[in-house]
Amino acid sequence: MPFYDLKCKNCGEEFNIMAKMSERDNKQIKCVKCGSNELETLFKSINIIQSKKNNSQDCPNIHKCNGCCGH
Ligand SMILES: [Zn+2]
């Protein structure tokens, strides 16, 4: 299951949650703070992965993943 960085449109809480894509699409994910399902996806993790691609020797598993695992 993918991780989502979500921001609650109701209370502004930002949190990271692992959920099925269908759960996100069907608004079954709820804010950890207020329980609202009006959430905005932030894609923070994806940005981190992209910015680290040029610096892939940081990855401890570089020989296995070729720098694609985001570490
Ligand atoms: Zn909230």
Describe the structure.
This protein is 25% helix and 20% strand. The protein is an alpha+beta fold and 71 residues long. The protein starts with a strand and ends in a 6-residue tail after the last helix. The protein has one domain: Rubrerythrin, domain 2 (Single Sheet), CATH 2.20.28. A three-stranded antiparallel β-sheet has the order 2-1-3, with no helix packed on it. The protein has helices at 21-25, 44-52, 62-65, and strands at 3-8, 14-18, 39-41. Residues 8, 10-11, 13, 31, 33-34, 36 line the site of zinc ion.
Task: Give the key terms.
71 residues; alpha+beta; Rubrerythrin, domain 2; three-stranded antiparallel beta sheet; 3 helices; 20% strand; elongated; binds zinc ion
Total beta strand runs: 3
What ligand molecules are bound, each kind once? zinc ion
Average of the residue pLDDT scores: 80
Distance between the termini: 18 Å
Helix content: 25-40%
Biggest β-sheet, characterized?
Answer: 3 strands, antiparallel
Identify the CATH class. Answer: Mainly Beta
* Category by helix and strand content: alpha+beta
Strand-residue proportion: 15-25%
Number of helices: 3
Taking strands numbered 1, 2, ... along the chain, how are they ordered across the largest sheet? 2-1-3
CATH architecture label name: Single Sheet
Q: What is the H-and-E element order?
A: EEHEHH
The rough form would be described as elongated
Low-confidence blocks of residues? none
